Model the fold of this input.
Amino acid sequence: MKLEIQNISKRYSSNIYGISDFSITIEKGILGLLGPNGAGKSTLLKMIATVNKPTKGIICLNKNNIVKDPNYMRKQLGFLPQDFGIYPNLNAYEFLTYIAAMKGVGGHNLKPRITHLLKGLNLIDAAKKPIGTYSGGMKQRVGIAQVLLNNPTIVIFDEPTVGLDPEERVRFRNLISDLANDCIVILSSHIVSDIDTIADRVAIMKNGTLITHGNQENIIQKVRNKVFETTIKKEQLSIFKTEQLVVSTSRKKNQLIVRYIADNPIDNSFEKEANLEDAYLYLTKMN
Ligand SMILES: Nc1ncnc2c1ncn2[C@@H]1O[C@H](COP(=O)(O)OP(=O)(O)OP(=O)(O)O)[C@@H](O)[C@H]1O
Ligand SMILES: [Mg+2]
Done:
């Protein structure tokens, strides 16, 4: 499996680009796509999913140009868009049966497959109730089930964990890890903790461009020996923030423990082990 994205741009209007001159090669495994709001994640994923066409550039899956031959992609794709619409009057079972028909999935395996997915996503008890009565997290899980119906070999989730509670996030992660052996899986998020435990590789984007791409170790390397903690008074925080790149703060009695990134630490700081969150913040703020 190889997905090659070569110099693609998406122009929405004369001066608005969703993506500009973007290239990346993605192989099997789980890729976490991180970027702040407006970075271009959805624009990129929709072009890979052949929902949109790039203004420039080509996208090849296993050497087939899917801009010209979108069906090559669609046959093996599972896609959860960020704004996933749903049919409120159907129940989960009916909805999945309907999507299966649209994807051309059928046969005697369909019923057990739907039941398996509903179980895996903890929807079996609600499966006979109309989707319109579901919570946001339940609807999101129906969306995830829909992605996996046709045993896709390339799976794209645009912000899949939005609306899921912590327990559901764990279930989702397990489901994805099971799936990932021979597939390309791309997960987007703007929250590092959604992807750092499952992504083999991470791509970070901002303003429609790729800032960095690689395994987590290599990305974390970029802030190694630059992460520190110190204790300050609460009222010093706003000034501290103007001088240092603050990752997080936590309260300690009347004071604050501040985690920050710097080339040279201020007095009374302790070096901390860098993590992906630190690297993400550093790379998106400094670029
Ligand atoms: N249909 C559209 N028409 C015009 N501009 C658009 C359209 N879709 C996206 N954009 C612009 O393209 C840029 C990238 O948007 P995109 O939705 O791809 O970002 P994103 O990384 O998915 O953000 P989010 O985290 O908020 O989902 C933004 O500046 C956005 O305003
Ligand atoms: Mg988006």
